Amino acid sequence: MQVTALYRHPIKSHGREALARVRLTAGQSMPNDRRWAVAHDNAKADGTKWAPCANFSRGAKAPQLAAINAVLNDETDMVTLTHPDRDPLTVHPMRDAAELLAWVMPLVPQDRALPARVVELVERGFTDTPYASISLNSAATHHAVEGLAQSELSPLRWRGNIWFDGAAAWDEFEWIDRDLRLGGAVLRVKERITRCKATTANPETGAIDVDTLRALNTLGHQDFGVYVEVIQSGDIALGDKLELI
């Protein structure tokens, strides 16, 4: 098996960025993945600790967010956001929070909880799990879902961190509690990822266009990909071998 893509999402649910290589640290998520999040006006999250995704603006409630791309400057912590319906914006998510909130406001439904503040969790980020997780996704499983949905799908719908090829579709579900070696790192597979409505939105347009959840439920579940934990630090890169150990 081989790694085919690496992504981070600097601001949770607000864009993704492709990477060529990254260093993983034991007990941490992908560096700068979901480091920031946009808390809505009903949220209890204050940035002092991890909080569940229900506290934040996200694609399940605001599908237009799916069409955002983000590029983080690691030296300045400035993030450049692009969207087909908005002018590009470069901001520091904390210092320029008001500007960021104004930029994203037209992309969210006005009859729901609205973006209110930006919070930051430097060490592990606001992942969708109470532990510092990284999502691992199979290209073969993605193609299997395309068959179920009878539609070509962008892999970006799944908001994954690590993509690999070379295994049969759905094999990754058999790896729970197994360890994987990837580059210089070792990962432990923790659990399957249950998916939400965010995956029904087209990542190029933000329009809801394919019922990915209905496609998955034909198999009796709503799962795609697995969460892993980093148990040994190391560098990983595109093209690295992924193997069960």
What does this structure look like?
This protein has helices at residues 97-104, 139-149, 212-217, and strands spanning 2-8, 17-19, 21-24, 36-40, 69-72, 79-83, 86-91, 115-120, 134-138, 162-165, 179-182, 185-194, 223-232, 234-237, 242-244. The model has no long low-confidence stretch (mean pLDDT 96). The strands form four sheets. The protein has an eight-stranded mixed β-sheet with strand order 2-1-10-9-13-12-11-15. Strands 5-6-7 form a three-stranded antiparallel β-sheet, with helices on one face. It has 245 residues and is mainly beta. 10% of the residues lie in helices and 33% in strands. The chain is globular. The protein is built from three helices and 15 strands. A hairpin with an 8-residue loop joins strand 1 (2-8) and strand 2. The longest helix has 11 residues, at 139-149. The protein has two domains: 2-28 and 129-244, M1 Pyruvate Kinase, Domain 3; 36-120, no CATH class.
